[in-house]
Amino acid sequence: MAVKGLGQLDQEYDGSNLRIGILHARWNKKIIEALVEGAKARLLELNVKPENIVIETVPGSFELPYGTKRFLEREAKKGKPLDAVIPIGVLIKGSTMHFEYICDSVTQQLMKLNFQLNIPVIFGVLTCLTDEQAEARAGLIEGKMHNHGEDWGAAAVEMATKFE
């Protein structure tokens, strides 16, 4: 069982001056909605203003890396750059190799975006073997696990403020 949260923090982080993007896939809607709400709730707890939480969608997890890049570019072009982005997706193993290819590709490309774009890109993609694992990690099964979206929201605020 995973430990809740990000471990012991070195300080309190304040997101009141941040603009955070959440880009989510639309596959596995019930799980995605819970994760987005968890991230959003944590951002609000850390003083990110509601109007500074920008939410956008893409079809699936495979589209998250390209969507993240274009999302950041679009917001910057509008003169409202994001300080961090949380791409959220859910991949659940099926009976083919599709799962492995998508997990590896999405993970590698999201990691690269941190360095290419010089902005925190938080890894908000669940890679689960079963629906039950995904539901537990989205906080949908009481007493089983916590909503990982909360961790991603906290990580976005920490990373955007710690190294500014």
UniProtKB/TrEMBL annotation:
Keywords: Riboflavin biosynthesis, Transferase. It catalyses: (2S)-2-hydroxy-3-oxobutyl phosphate + 5-amino-6-(D-ribitylamino)uracil = 6,7-dimethyl-8-(1-D-ribityl)lumazine + phosphate + 2 H2O + H(+). CDD domains: Lumazine_synthase-I. Pfam families: DMRL_synthase. Its EC number is 2.5.1.78. It comes from the Eukaryota. Pathway: Cofactor biosynthesis; riboflavin biosynthesis; riboflavin from 2-hydroxy-3-oxobutyl phosphate and 5-amino-6-(D-ribitylamino)uracil: step 1/2. Catalyzes the formation of 6,7-dimethyl-8-ribityllumazine by condensation of 5-amino-6-(D-ribitylamino)uracil with 3,4-dihydroxy-2-butanone 4-phosphate. This is the penultimate step in the biosynthesis of riboflavin. Belongs to the DMRL synthase family. This is 6,7-dimethyl-8-ribityllumazine synthase. It comes from [Candida] anglica.
